[in-house]
Amino acid sequence: MFKKIKAWAKNLKRQIFILYYACKDHRVPWYAKVFAASIVAYAFSPIDLIPDFIPILGYLDEVILLPLGIMLALKMIRKDVLSDCEVKAEELMRNGKPKNWKGALIIILIWVVITVWAIMKIYPHFS
C-alpha cells in the first residue's frame, strides 16, 4: 500500500511539473495558463486552503482538490503541448526542482496582503 501511495505522489508531482512548463508555453491559451499557474502556485505554496492540523479535512485539498485541479488543467491543454511539457518535466525530475525565487516572492506577497486585509477587516481599529 505504501508503494502505491508513493507512486501516486510521484505522479502528482510529475503532473505539477508538466503544468509548470505548460504555463510557459506560448501555445497554451491564456485561460488555461491562468488556471494552471494557480494550481502550480497552490501546490508549491506552504499555505493550504484547509489547514493540515484540522483532522481528516486538513488533507482534503492534497488528496481531492489538488488532483481535481490538475486533472481539469491538463484537459484544457492540447495533447501535443502536453507531450512536449512531459518531456521537460521528466528531465526536470531527473535533474532537480527549479528554483524560482521571483515566483515564491510573489506568492508570499499575495499571502501577506490577504493577511493584512483580513486583520484590518477583523480589527478595524488598527487601520
From TrEMBL:
Keywords: Membrane, Transmembrane, Transmembrane helix. Residues 32-68 form the DUF1232 domain. Signal peptide: none annotated. One of its GO terms (cellular component) is endomembrane system. Its main location: membrane. The chain crosses the membrane at residues 30-47, 53-74, 103-123. It is a multi-pass membrane protein. It is found in: Endomembrane system. InterPro entries: DUF1232. This is DUF1232 domain-containing protein.
